[in-house]
Task: structure prediction
Amino acid sequence: MPAVLPRLRTPALLLAAVVAAGACGESGGNAERFCGEVAANADALTNPQLVYSDDIEPLLELYRDIGDLAPLAVEEDWNQLVSAYETASTVVVGDQASEQEALAAIYSSEESAALVDRWLRENCAVDIGPVATIVSQSPVTAPPPSAPPSTPATTAP
Result:
Protein backbone atom coordinates (compact mmCIF):
# COMPACT_ATOMS: atom_id res chain seq x y z
CA MET A 1 0.00 0.00 0.00
CA PRO A 2 1.48 3.42 -0.94
CA ALA A 3 2.41 5.83 1.81
CA VAL A 4 -0.31 8.28 2.66
CA LEU A 5 0.81 11.88 3.02
CA PRO A 6 -0.85 13.93 5.74
CA ARG A 7 -3.30 16.42 4.42
CA LEU A 8 -2.03 20.00 4.56
CA ARG A 9 -4.63 22.11 6.31
CA THR A 10 -3.30 25.61 5.90
CA PRO A 11 -1.85 27.60 3.02
CA ALA A 12 1.20 28.36 5.17
CA LEU A 13 2.02 24.67 5.49
CA LEU A 14 1.51 24.22 1.75
CA LEU A 15 3.82 27.14 1.04
CA ALA A 16 6.44 25.74 3.43
CA ALA A 17 6.23 22.34 1.74
CA VAL A 18 6.67 23.88 -1.72
CA VAL A 19 9.63 25.98 -0.59
CA ALA A 20 11.27 22.99 1.10
CA ALA A 21 10.77 20.85 -2.00
CA GLY A 22 12.15 23.60 -4.21
CA ALA A 23 15.19 24.02 -2.01
CA CYS A 24 16.20 20.46 -2.81
CA GLY A 25 16.35 21.13 -6.54
CA GLU A 26 19.37 22.28 -8.52
CA SER A 27 17.91 25.51 -9.90
CA GLY A 28 18.73 28.83 -8.34
CA GLY A 29 22.38 28.15 -7.53
CA ASN A 30 23.92 28.05 -4.11
CA ALA A 31 24.86 31.40 -2.59
CA GLU A 32 27.13 29.96 0.09
CA ARG A 33 29.15 27.86 -2.36
CA PHE A 34 29.14 30.66 -4.95
CA CYS A 35 30.52 33.13 -2.41
CA GLY A 36 33.08 30.60 -1.22
CA GLU A 37 34.30 29.82 -4.72
CA VAL A 38 34.56 33.49 -5.67
CA ALA A 39 36.50 34.21 -2.47
CA ALA A 40 38.79 31.21 -2.97
CA ASN A 41 39.46 32.09 -6.61
CA ALA A 42 39.37 35.90 -6.40
CA ASP A 43 42.94 36.33 -7.58
CA ALA A 44 42.52 33.96 -10.54
CA LEU A 45 39.25 35.66 -11.50
CA THR A 46 40.45 39.24 -11.26
CA ASN A 47 44.14 38.94 -12.07
CA PRO A 48 44.47 35.99 -14.43
CA GLN A 49 47.95 35.07 -15.60
CA LEU A 50 47.26 34.75 -19.31
CA VAL A 51 50.54 34.22 -21.10
CA TYR A 52 49.56 31.80 -23.86
CA SER A 53 46.31 31.33 -25.74
CA ASP A 54 46.00 27.93 -24.03
CA ASP A 55 45.62 29.79 -20.70
CA ILE A 56 42.26 31.25 -21.75
CA GLU A 57 40.05 28.14 -21.74
CA PRO A 58 40.86 27.13 -18.13
CA LEU A 59 39.94 30.67 -17.02
CA LEU A 60 36.66 30.47 -18.93
CA GLU A 61 35.97 27.07 -17.36
CA LEU A 62 36.57 28.54 -13.90
CA TYR A 63 34.06 31.31 -14.64
CA ARG A 64 31.54 28.80 -16.02
CA ASP A 65 31.95 26.42 -13.06
CA ILE A 66 31.47 29.21 -10.54
CA GLY A 67 28.56 30.51 -12.63
CA ASP A 68 26.84 27.14 -12.22
CA LEU A 69 26.63 27.96 -8.50
CA ALA A 70 25.38 31.54 -8.97
CA PRO A 71 22.16 32.39 -7.16
CA LEU A 72 19.32 33.72 -9.29
CA ALA A 73 19.89 37.26 -8.03
CA VAL A 74 23.30 37.43 -9.72
CA GLU A 75 23.18 34.60 -12.26
CA GLU A 76 22.20 36.68 -15.30
CA ASP A 77 24.91 39.28 -14.63
CA TRP A 78 27.55 36.60 -14.02
CA ASN A 79 26.57 34.89 -17.29
CA GLN A 80 26.84 38.24 -19.08
CA LEU A 81 30.46 38.45 -17.91
CA VAL A 82 31.16 34.89 -19.05
CA SER A 83 29.66 35.65 -22.44
CA ALA A 84 31.79 38.77 -22.82
CA TYR A 85 34.95 36.86 -21.88
CA GLU A 86 34.03 34.09 -24.31
CA THR A 87 33.65 36.68 -27.08
CA ALA A 88 36.95 38.30 -26.12
CA SER A 89 38.64 34.89 -26.26
CA THR A 90 37.83 34.63 -29.97
CA VAL A 91 39.73 37.79 -30.97
CA VAL A 92 41.96 37.45 -33.96
CA VAL A 93 44.78 39.91 -33.34
CA GLY A 94 44.91 42.45 -36.15
CA ASP A 95 41.36 41.72 -37.34
CA GLN A 96 39.51 44.97 -36.67
CA ALA A 97 36.05 43.41 -36.86
CA SER A 98 37.03 40.73 -34.35
CA GLU A 99 38.60 43.28 -32.01
CA GLN A 100 35.58 45.61 -32.23
CA GLU A 101 33.19 42.74 -31.48
CA ALA A 102 35.18 41.90 -28.34
CA LEU A 103 35.30 45.54 -27.24
CA ALA A 104 31.55 45.87 -27.72
CA ALA A 105 30.95 42.73 -25.63
CA ILE A 106 33.21 43.98 -22.84
CA TYR A 107 31.66 47.47 -22.81
CA SER A 108 28.16 46.03 -22.78
CA SER A 109 29.01 43.94 -19.71
CA GLU A 110 30.20 46.89 -17.58
CA GLU A 111 26.91 47.25 -15.74
CA SER A 112 26.84 43.51 -15.02
CA ALA A 113 30.40 43.66 -13.69
CA ALA A 114 29.46 46.49 -11.33
CA LEU A 115 26.30 44.66 -10.20
CA VAL A 116 28.20 41.43 -9.54
CA ASP A 117 30.81 43.36 -7.56
CA ARG A 118 28.11 45.08 -5.48
CA TRP A 119 26.24 41.79 -4.91
CA LEU A 120 29.43 40.05 -3.76
CA ARG A 121 30.25 42.84 -1.30
CA GLU A 122 26.70 43.02 0.10
CA ASN A 123 25.92 39.29 0.25
CA CYS A 124 29.27 37.55 0.61
CA ALA A 125 31.51 40.17 2.22
CA VAL A 126 33.84 39.48 -0.73
CA ASP A 127 35.59 42.44 -2.28
CA ILE A 128 37.08 41.56 -5.65
CA GLY A 129 38.68 44.97 -5.93
CA PRO A 130 37.75 47.97 -7.98
CA VAL A 131 35.77 47.30 -11.13
CA ALA A 132 37.11 49.48 -13.91
CA THR A 133 34.41 50.81 -16.21
CA ILE A 134 34.30 53.41 -18.95
CA VAL A 135 30.95 54.75 -17.75
CA SER A 136 30.34 55.27 -14.03
CA GLN A 137 28.10 52.50 -12.69
CA SER A 138 27.41 54.15 -9.34
CA PRO A 139 23.77 54.73 -8.57
CA VAL A 140 22.85 58.27 -9.46
CA THR A 141 21.07 60.19 -6.75
CA ALA A 142 19.10 63.28 -7.55
CA PRO A 143 19.55 66.32 -5.36
CA PRO A 144 16.63 67.04 -3.06
CA PRO A 145 14.00 69.27 -4.62
CA SER A 146 14.42 72.87 -3.76
CA ALA A 147 11.57 75.04 -2.57
CA PRO A 148 10.17 77.39 -5.18
CA PRO A 149 11.44 80.94 -4.78
CA SER A 150 9.20 82.96 -2.56
CA THR A 151 7.80 86.17 -3.89
CA PRO A 152 7.11 89.07 -1.63
CA ALA A 153 3.46 89.78 -1.06
CA THR A 154 2.25 92.87 -2.75
CA THR A 155 -0.36 95.14 -1.38
CA ALA A 156 -2.84 96.89 -3.55
CA PRO A 157 -2.61 100.71 -3.57
Observations:
- Residues 87 and 101 are 8 Å apart (CA to CA).
- Helices lie at 11-23, 31-40, 42-46, 56-67, 72-88, 96-108, 110-124.
- Residues 1-26 have pLDDT under 50 and may be disordered.
- The first helix runs from residue 11 to 23.
